[in-house]
Specification:
138 residues, alpha+beta, 22% strand, 4 helices, two-stranded antiparallel sheet, 6 strands
Length: 138
């Protein structure tokens, strides 16, 4: 199986989508569920929602160049969403759809078969899992 069109950033994006993404006619959405945890230690305080927001900004930066789309962070009530809008279906969008077997949302996505192939480079598998964990590890 060839992986020429797949690089670490695309693998990471696919992990995000498989975990909590949607493909739509006008772009894609990645849902980051909000958390209610505020953990306090002796010298530090951890606020889940604040940490999620900081992480989302880094993720947005990572995938914005890849997609060539306007990406906004949206508060949808129970989740923070990255919404990538596009006006046309570029080859990147078509390839993502093809890798996800033309399914449109995370309850129906399967792990793309390319990541199950023993010949797929380990770095691509790691980046896929990193994307998956970044959105679903909460």
């Amino acid at each position: 199986m060839k992986t020429g069109y797949l690089d670490p950033d695309v693998a990471y994006l696919l992990g995000l989508l498989v975990a909590r993404g949607e493909l739509q006619e006008t772009g894609l959405i990645i849902h980051f569920p909000k958390g209610a945890l505020i953990a306090e230690g002796e010298s530090t305080k951890f606020n889940t929602n604040k940490e999620i927001q900081l992480g989302i900004d880094k993720i947005r930066d990572r995938i914005s160049d890849l997609l060539g789309a306007d990406i906004k962070r949206v508060d949808s009530g129970d989740s923070w969403d990255l919404v990538a809008s596009t006006t046309k279906k570029t080859i990147a969008w078509r390839n993502i759809g093809r890798l996800l077997e033309d399914k449109t949302d995370f309850p129906h996505f399967d792990i793309p078969t390319i990541f199950l192939d023993k010949n797929t480079p380990q770095i691509l598998k790691i980046e896929f899992m990193r994307g998956y964990a970044d959105v679903s590890g909460n």
